[in-house]
Amino acid sequence: MTLRIAIVGAGPSGLYATDALNSAGHHVDVIERLPVPFGLVRYGVAPDHYSIRSVRGTLEKVLLEPNVRLLAGVEVGRDVSVDELLAAYDGVVLTYGASRDRLLQIPGEDLPGSLAATDLVAWYCGHPDADRAAVESALSAATSVVVVGVGNVSVDVTRVLTAPADRLERTDMPQHVLDILESSGIRDVHVLGRRSPAQATWTTKELRELGEIDGIDVVVEPADFELEPVVVGLMESDRVVARNVEVMRGWIDNEPAEGNRHIHLHFHSRPAEITGTDRVSGVVVERTALDESGAARGTGETYEIEAQLIVRSVGYRGMPLAGVPFDASRHVVPNADGRVLGEDGVPIPGLYVAGWIKRGPTGIIGTNKKDAGATVASLLADRVDIAPRGGDGVFALLLERGITPIHIDGWQAVDAAERALGQAQGRDRTTIHEHDSLRAAASGVE
Ligand SMILES: Cc1cc2nc3c(=O)[nH]c(=O)nc-3n(C[C@H](O)[C@H](O)[C@H](O)COP(=O)(O)OP(=O)(O)OC[C@H]3O[C@@H](n4cnc5c(N)ncnc54)[C@H](O)[C@@H]3O)c2cc1C
């Protein structure tokens, strides 16, 4: 029995689910909002992390399978509803990700010059929805930057903002991004972590890399390394934590060189207010102390950092999709083993979920493979006895509505155009960033 399944979102979790379904002999339509596939592998993973971005090659192979069809440039909830998908397919798997930022909820957050990491990452990766004007205006005025948060996205953002031109010029960033980063006046980036150095969630490799880039000095406060007993316990029980602290301790004696860019790591520090009248001029930071459980509590003591740009990197969150239940406290689609649960707590027949919108924004790309595999196992177990609907999914319906989906050959045309553009600029590839240009490249009209 061959089923026809719709996948909503062509990021890693959608394509891993597709791979599992295709391997089991089923037909899959992968519906993607953007004109191009790959989700955060294209629009999140840092452009200078070549080996991680190369997972795109593996994901692309899935889309080349004969029983898999890419329908890109189609937004579920706008161009076609989830109910219409449920009526046209033998199963629907939601894998639409969780790529909105979380808010700090402090005064001044809305001032020009205060950006979410999502905005900055979208801009430097060449996402067609990136707000170029907001990001470029914030960057043009910046000599000092505050990055709030101590996870891997904050390391990426900090590295991209401080890296010398020769590190970035081989990447596939759009040319205007490279030009702006190259001429940026940024000298100092202050990274704020509200708890101790041992509680930062970055991976050691990414952290260590910060200290290895020519032209960058990392500066730490020795007092932050007088560790509380609760933190020493953490280091003893977790080797990654111990290694991270060791890497940062190695920077205690760093003498910042004149002419270099400086990254200042501040722990036990949380932003209390973003200051400025018509745009950001600084951040008031409150010192914190840890309680016995390791949580940060404000001490009332404050200090100020002058900054023209604030990047809030405190996590991602999912958003509701029309017609689908949503857990507004956890920002995920409620589910049991990937089966979407209705308001009554009972699975909705045929509707499944995988990836970040199922479990929240955690784990690495590979985590989505196992997660998508588990969801597909639930789907196949449930759908074993159904009579397949047949038909051609929602393709005809989309055409009727004047929507022409982009297929894999459209992506291949974009791929070729990006390689050609890159080669003309002396690199492997340059990302095409505007919606219209992507669509034009996909249809072979460059
Ligand atoms: C800045 C950043 C850097 C990262 N770096 C790394 C790294 O170095 N290494 C690593 O292992 N992991 C990294 N990750 C994590 C990794 O990117 C995620 O684990 C992974 O992308 C999650 O996959 P997903 O498919 O659930 O979501 P996504 O990758 O977000 O894919 C969701 C897809 O759904 C589409 N979509 C959304 N709404 C709709 C709709 N209504 N209709 C149709 N399509 C829709 C989106 O356009 C997108 O293509 C990073 C994440 C971020 C944010």
Walkthrough of the structure:
The protein has 446 residues and is an alpha/beta fold. It has two domains: 185 residues, NAD(P)-binding Rossmann-like Domain (Rossmann fold, 3-Layer(aba) Sandwich); 211 residues, FAD/NAD(P)-binding domain (3-Layer(bba) Sandwich), CATH 3.50.50.60. The protein contains 18 helices and 18 strands. The strands form four sheets. The chain has a seven-stranded mixed sheet, with helices on both faces. The protein has a six-stranded parallel sheet with strand order 6-14-7-8-10-9. A hairpin with a 5-residue loop joins strand 12 and strand 13. Helix 1 crosses helix 15, helix 12 packs across helix 13 and helix 17 crosses helix 18. The longest helix is centred in the C-terminal third of the chain and has 17 residues. Flavin-adenine dinucleotide (FAD) binds next to helix 1, strand 2, helix 2 and helix 8. The site of flavin-adenine dinucleotide has 36 residues, from helix 1, strand 2, helix 2 and helix 8.
Strand content: 15-25%
Uncertain spans? none
**Helical coverage, percent range:** 25-40%
CATH hierarchy: architecture of the largest domain: 3-Layer(bba) Sandwich
Question: What is the topology?
Answer:
Layout: E1 4-8, H1 12-23, E2 27-32, H2 39-43, H3 50-53, H4 55-63, E3 68-72, H5 82-88, E4 91-94, E5 100-101, E6 114-116, H6 117-125, H7 132-140, E7 144-148, H8 152-162, H9 165-168, H10 175-182, E8 188-192, H11 204-210, E9 216-220, H12 229-237, H13 239-249, E10 261-266, E11 269-275, E12 282-290, E13 296-306, E14 309-312, E15 316-317, E16 335-336, E17 339-341, E18 347-353, H14 356-359, H15 367-382, H16 395-400, H17 408-424, H18 435-442
Parallel strand pairs: 1-2, 1-4, 2-3, 4-18, 6-14, 7-8, 7-14, 8-10, 9-10
Antiparallel strand pairs: 5-15, 11-12, 12-13, 16-17, 17-18
Flavin-adenine dinucleotide binds near residues 41, 153 and 365.
